[in-house]
Protein 1
Amino acid sequence: MTDIILVVVEQREGKLNRVSWETITAGQAIAAQTGWTLEAAVVGSGVGTIAGEVAAKKVAKVYDIESAKLEPYTPDAFSHALKEFLTKHPAKVVLMPHTYQVRDFVPKLATSLHTTAVSDVIGCKYDGGKLLFTRQMFQGKFVADVSFAGAGPCFVTFQNGSFRADKVEAGASAAPVETVNVDVPDGVVRNKPQEVFKEAKQAVDLTQAEIIVSVGRGIKEQKNIELAKQLADALGGEIAASRPICDNGWLPMDRQIGSSGQTVAPKLYLALGISGAIQHIVGMKGAKSIVAINKDSEAPIFEIADYAVVGNLFDIVPPLIEEVKKAKG
Amino acid sequence: MKILVCMKQVPQKDAPLKLNEAGTWIREDVSYEVNEPDAFALEEALRQKEKHTGEVVVLTAGPARAQQVLREALAKGADRAIHLEDAAFVGLDAYNTARAIAAAIKDEKFDLIFTGLQSDDYGYAQTGVILAQIQGWPHATIIMQIEKNEGGIRVKRELEAGFFQFVDMPLPAVLTIQSGINKLRYATLIGIKQAKTKPLRKVTMTEVQAAVGGNLQKIEKLYVPQKSKNTEFLEGPPAEVAKKLVEKLKNEVRVL
């Protein structure tokens, strides 16, 4: 029997989450390195169309894991269904995107199978017959190569943007789709989820901004936000922030960039006093140019910056505003 | 309500971290603080107790230095503390940490267990959910609000990109708490004084050893990330740096 790599794509309310293509790309890369067989699965109720969509990619097989109890999503039902499936269809590694939904059920699923999940992975290596997964630690200041022990399967969740969705290989012909009906007995699902909603209509759509000036903890006090606003105005850009700033109420929540806020890819992202925690980076690393001003020379934001200034933002921003105004005439 | 809050001591946010000689962990001679989401978890537990009465118990796993986190929590109003005290706890993976915690609280009867949604050091975001599975309890993650209702609780889960969802669930349950769910309080002088007399139960590794197995994940190597970008560092006095940066914005980034 060959070893199986299983990618579980993510669907929410019957729609494929596009980040799943990144996970398929990761699976294809691991399959190419190891020679193992890549299969995919979708979990839900009436999600056959998604299975068909995935079957067009270069995968050996797609499973459509079905139960009426899988809609709406609950950690109990998803965990139960995948445990049942994996018991009958053992896999060596199971790959998923590191989304809030996956974070909600994978640790439970892995524990129910007495195995583990390597979470928030950004890369992998196949070294002397051993798979190593690279993940960030200490808020991105270090990375670790992590190996897996035990009988498996090893669950791996990938950070958004670690593999490219547009590199996913199409299959020569459509892969076979097998529908697997799972039984989720009454009593398994304990949580009763209500409708998904948005707090308020977002006033600003930062995804459309060409220039974003973003502030982090380094701004120190609420009154200093004004300085960043002046820079944003001079540049003709929008003001944004990392999570702690919005948690403090210094800027409204709809100005937040990162995993729990907006994901942006402007022409210029100017980060003031932002250290660059993973949760922030995933929301802005697609920017075409990143300028970082931070007093800590080891801040992880500098890893992804195109232009870096190590120094006190309160010294640098005032002359910067003047120079920008001059340049604009 | 009887609530357990699992807290962790992590290196301070701007502490300069250095690798140990083996390149498998950091050098431990840094300053530590409480993991930020755990502080919010504690605050939420104290608020729930103020609303519904009950007891707040705080727990941590780590060497002697980690006791500081418990003392601070007691000073803020927690009733008692449990310290799984051993340097070896730092090296456990999430599964084993949860198993050790479960073993340490086996004689307790909590209605709720709170953890922060993830730690700033490992960043697993798993221990709370694993603990729920071990206890056989339901769980919900990334929680921004908790209300008691007839059948148990109604919680507000944060989803991605500004979405939320209310979930009704029975008790007992495990919740992982998001930063910003509330406003943190400071310890009062009288609180700090009282903390010294509050009960703190120590649990040794030996006591929970039977519940813990071999780690299923191992850090083979810890290192500074390789730069994927050619970062250009602009240096000089502020006025000069400002000029240089504007040149770049004009000629290379082309936004001016």
Note: DSSP finds seven helices and 13 strands in chain B.
Protein 2
Amino acid sequence: MTDTDSTTTGPLAPEDITADSPFTLPGFFDALADGQLLAARCTECETHMLPPRPACYGCGSRAVTLAEQPRTGEVISYTSVNRPPSAFDHLAPITVAVVELDTSARLTGRVDAPLDDVSIGDRVELQVRDPETADIDPDFDLSYEEEWPVHVFELL
Amino acid sequence: MPTAHLIAVGSSPLGKTDLPGRDLFSKALAEAFEELPDPADVVDGLYVGAQSERYENQIMQGTLMAEWAGLRNVPAERVEACAAAGALALKNAVRDVRAGVHDAVLACGVEKMTAGGTEGATNALGAAFERALEQRSGITAPATYALLARRYLHETDATERDLARIAVKNHRNAASNPRAMFQDEVDIETAMNAPDVAPPLKLYDCAPVTDGAAAVVVANDEVAADLQARADAVRVAGVGSAANNLAVAERDLTYVEGANVAASTAYEDAGVDATDVDVAEVHDAFTVCEALLAEAAEFAPKGRGIETVEDPADRSAGWTDVQINTSGGLKARGHPIGATGLLQAVEAHEQLTGRAGERQVADADTALLINEGGVADAHTVAHVLTARGE
């Protein structure tokens, strides 16, 4: 994946860390709402991290930059949440999976399919839903999370 | 460096009890100090492991537990790493004694998990997972461990039945542990036919919601020699800990690397290796964890951790002869989150002092404890305990 308009490579300066920057959660979710899935990419070891963060867990380097991620990936593992937290009760059972995107970035997310339809190795695509469509009890959200979109995987 | 000794242990009843957290602590403290002077005359500080204030709407447990022990104006701190909080309290107590900061420290843990029912426990435990992407996807503790289990069954020859056998073994062990929450054995068909919680994990793959407390006294040579009626105290010979990533997605699902780092560090600190360990209490919050931790502790070859249930003579090549979770483990002894790491120390103390009754492992002189918090190795604390003189 190509880097985005972030031309700088970390270590981040204090003034780089604002709610507009995708290196913070508000900036990451704003970009996601606009259709951009951004990871931190380590320029030393190529680890991709979602959400972006100021340092690489793979090698410890802070020479990280932003890289837009593909929406497609593969199911690494999956299960069904039969008794979810109360804010998700009405959605039970919830199929969830760990997905490895084609850049090797990995994230957990809901899968919009019954458990029996999912297998390890299945190809999936990440969809971005607004909080209402994602149907989480609004009481679950902290005040600053209310507008944040929710990602859901669909089987390809 | 002063040596840290475990000179006394105690625990409360485990299960759904009518006692709030502070009273559970009082029970554990009363047992630990049965043969000792007042706590104020023994210890100079306190650490308490407690996972969540959501159960009883109470933080400041360091102050509260110190007060209930009759300690005043001493350092008294709550420590937290979800289910690793108990071992974290022990680790801090050992560090203080080894550093000469204190002559003796009380390490305790408490959790009143049933206060809000299953829903309250699910929501409180949910705070241990990464918030932005994982909590907002609706995951729970059983689901995150099911992700490990599904992948483990995919990569190895292990089956759901192999996992169920771990639960059966731990229930059998608990049946001879008077401290255990469950005193009943469970047969394999019952475990296999139990309802799904998060496939492939079923009810008996999961540790229960438990109320409970535990307390142990860590002391230096002088205090241990002064106070110990018996000469068979236990030494804390090695300590290790490691924090891996928070999000389960960003970790190896079938190799708990952080646990291997913590255990290896504790082995090195103690000057032992995996083959020296006679008994181990490892964090079987879910059956698959026992298999994964047997491998991470270097007891078992990769993919064969499920053989914890076998007699040593029947295990694959590359296995040690360690006995795992003789207490019944988290699964059947019970898992009061903040107290669990100290309940592991209680079992090791009984094994290493020959007081484990029917479940006594002959000639046990070295024990490994692995206590984890978050999902699997998000946080791991490991201790090596040895019988004194070893």
Note: The radius of gyration of chain B is 19 Å.
Protein 3
Amino acid sequence: MELIVSSAIGFMTAAAVYLILQKRTFPIVVGLTLLSYAVNIFLFSSGRLVVNQPPIITGAESYTDPLPQALVLTAIVISFGMTALIVVLAIRGFLETATDTADLPEDEWDDETETRS
Amino acid sequence: MTDAPLATSWIIAPTILPAITAAVLILLRQRDISIQRFVSLSSTAALVVIAVFLYLVLDDGETDAYRLGAWPAPFGIALVLDRLSATMLVLTAGLALAVLLYAMAGWDRHGRHFHALFHFQLLGLNGAFLTGDIFNLFVFFEVMLIASYGLMLHGGGAKRLRAGFQYVAINLIASSLFLIAIGLIYGTVGTLNFADLAVKARAVAEGDQALLQTGVLLLLLVFALKAAFVPLHWWLPATYAAASAPVAALFAIMTKVGAYAIIRVFGTVFGDGAAPAALGAVAAPWVVPAALVTIAVGTIGLLGTRKLFNLAAFNTIASMGVLLVAVGQFSVDGLTAALYYLVHSTIAGAALFLIVDLIASRRTVKLDALVPGNPISQAAVIGALFFLVAIAVVGLPPLSGFIGKLLVLDATYEASKAWLIWATILVSSLMMTIAFARAGSTVFWKAEGQTTGPKWDTAAVTPIIVVACLVGASLMFAVFAGPAVRALYATAEQALDTQTYVRAVLGDRENVEPERPITTPNTMSDPSAPTISPGE
């Protein structure tokens, strides 16, 4: 199980890094999503990988650590909300500038500041 | 709960007040702007009073902890107030009041929800300064960032959207790294409470120490991104220059959150030399060299920029460099200088963004371009204020920048490579003087054509008075530098005193030191774990 979990985290992170380094907004958003999945699983595994144990101290010998599960829940909520926000930003940016690249074109920048809005 | 003195419960007030205010402001969104302004302003004023109250009353040199729901410290959530937190709270509240007064002159009409987002931002900032565990630091960072995304886009426009996308993307990556760091630390130490970490990190098993150090260095990376350390500073000029001026002025405190987190985590939590892993020491080799490059990049940016707002943005980078050189000493003297410079650069950096906005909003051509434009109204007053703000940020007497840089130079006198630090700071000050002298003469003396801008009336005067107050604050901070430095010296001593912090949060338990190395994260099953007394 350790091999599956760790290689899944590794592959997802590698794919995420590749996608985030792209020029257009859509691959970046997908990359950020993949990165947050990888982080969530990583966080989950920080409490050690245990199967079929209660997340509470019962007096039995072993239990699964409940804290990383709570942390992951918080992280999921935050990253989900942030992904929604960045999707909106990407779409609005595309609609207003008719291009979906993620950089700041220098010329456009200059023209805009020199005329009164 | 009964044992907690009433005064200690006030520690949570700086987070509750903005949260309630922001919620109320959302309900008031359809109402007249004057009602929103009244609620927003009175809440911010109350926040200033609470922050000063916390600084004066609770700050008796003790570290106070407020345990939410009276859960014992390592298990529940703790908010911790010491002099460092209290100083940051007062600074945040004061800056927020100034920025809000400036924004109320008209900027807050440019988009909906300005006031609500403003208070959510304050919630995140105050929470980050008060929190006593690393996961809540992450949560409050996120609250602060989410509000800042909204504020940054305030006013709208294609330029802000494009810069905003970059800003959100880079901070999402930083948040992911933060979570990985938290996972590594929790996986090896088994706790996330600052005080508990300081104790248990010493007993981490040999094989786990490399993992723990990786986690701690990742934390440094995240804080460095917030603090706009080179090479993680690229987001800052685009973001700050694209944001509306009051928002950029409020963001002057956001970079300081990164510096605060570095002081708290690497100074207070992992700073104790007793730790075998020497976790605080893993950061030290990186901070000063990166800070020196940060100064250089900021200064070159100042000299090279063709935009007034970029001038203010690159000044933020250069000032963070000076601040982090002092932080990087990890000594009481260095931290005193760092804190003085932190307060100064927050005030002066915010004033610079506002004064630049006063200039740009009065010009009808070449708005914020650093080229001769048309003369502006009230040029004499604004020119004089620009001159004073420039003196403050560059570090010339008589304003606080001079004393700040003097303290930094003094604190690094005996550091290794002191000559390099001194040369970088002094040469960069000269270059900054040239950059600001050139900017001032271009904008005010080479102007030609029709004078534009509002006449003398209330709407035009309020923002000018706000900037004048910030300059006055810088002057007062220089005049009362003696008492200020004494207070900050005590603050720095307390911030580096791990033992007192641990005792204040965990209580006077005899077995604060773990008796055997922790090999599993399941500390709750650890027989040596301290017993919990409900009355703690």
Note: The interface with chain A takes residues 135, 139, 142, 146, 149, 153, 157-159, 161-166, 168-169, 172-173, 175-176, 179-180, 182-184, 186-187, 192, 238, 307, 364-369, 520-522, 524-525 of chain B (CB under 8 Å).
